Amino acid sequence: MKALCWHGKHDVRYETVPDPQIEHPRDAVIKVSSCAICGSDLHLYDGFMLGMESGDILGHEFMGEVVEVGAENKKLKVGDRVVVPFTICCGECPQCKRGNFSLCERSNRNKAMAEKMFGHTTAGLFGYSHITGGYPGGQAEYVRVPFADVTPVKIPDGLTDEQVLFLGDIFPTGWQAAAQCDIQPEDTVAIWGCGPVGQMAIRSALLLGAKQVVAIDNIPERLTMAEAGGAITINFERESVLERLGELTKGRGPEKCIDAVGMEAHATGHLDSMMDRAKQAVMLETDRPHVLREMIYVCQPGGTISIPGVYGGLIDKIPFGAAMNKSLTFRMGQTHVNRWTDDLLRRIQEGQIDPSFVITHTAGLNEGPEYYKTFRDKKDGCIKVVLKP
After folding, report:
1. pTM metric for this prediction
2. Which one-letter DSSP state was computed for residue 176?
3. Which of 64, 129, 235, 273 is in the most buried spot, having the most CB atoms within 10 Å?
4. CA distance 182 to 14
5. pLDDT per residue as tens digits for the range 151-207
6. pLDDT digits (tens, 9 = 90+) for 267-316
7. Other residues' Cβ atoms within 10 Å of the Cβ of residue 43
8. Are 362 and 388 in contact (CB under 8 A)?
9. Element (H, E) at 85
10. Cβ contacts of residue 308 below 8 Å, gap of 6+?
11. Looking at residue 252, what DSSP letter applies?
12. Which pLDDT belongs to residue 48?
């Protein structure tokens, strides 16, 4: 089969690789009908995530048709149409039973590596380094899905791939980012980053009842899309984020702040951001946390900081004294996708939201290497790429 394979920083190739096989009776093999390039994939593309090996198949946002089912899998049958969450979960361990699916204790087959890195294992993930299991990803013609009697979401007739594909990652990720803010009717929710997850967080926060949502970015196309979703926007290259948020909240600051950027903040003209880039270049720091610092500074005392943006290692100069003295609450983590999918699928069916609004580019899987560059460089108004094997 064909797949997109990682061979190092900025080196993604469309290659022939072995077809996946059933390896466990609970497995299934999926013929991919649609997959996407995620902002988290850019951390791999830019060489910032540890644990990648040359030839690894990329991709963790995908869906398709079941073509083979293991003998013990009673949930799926050949021909079922499914979205596959990026978090692989067993459904039986203590964390899964609590609904903490991204913390599954059994799905990471490189558990010892994760424990050394994080202190404990986290769930296996598709296409996202050997620290999370080294599972081949979904930017491919076929994918083996472990624990396929738990993880996949069956899709009813009448919905297009484009409507439901993002149930596997960015829609529940944006939703969880907003849900863990415990939004109240008088809250201002400020969201840093208007990429795909930020766009989903904007609409999720409004669906959950926020008084106003403020979206912060510097890319005109992203800001236009955020405004279309109901957000007030701030272009951080043209105006002061701190001053504008002060005006919008009568000096109190936003009650809830969401970091939809993560480790590769692109702030310019800030001393801390320039220092982060220098430290990152010589491996004194792995991530660039300008957004996190700004959120801590501007968030209203007693407020909540929600972090769906991915961080991979060590960050520096975090104003933790401000966070402690302001009594801020931090909630973060990889998305517990299966916790949210039933509700979000219902909302799509009822017409409350159509996640396909975020798609700006559709291409063949063979064009994937070029579209990694387009997406990373934000060329041609690119916000979200869907690939068709």
Report:
1. 0.94
2. H
3. 64
4. 43
5. 999 999 999 999 999 999 999 999 999 999 999 999 999 999 999 999 999 999 999
6. 655 656 555 555 555 555 567 788 999 999 999 999 999 999 888 778 88
7. 21
8. yes
9. none
10. 173, 174, 176, 177, 197, 201, 258, 259, 260, 262, 332, 335
11. S
12. 85
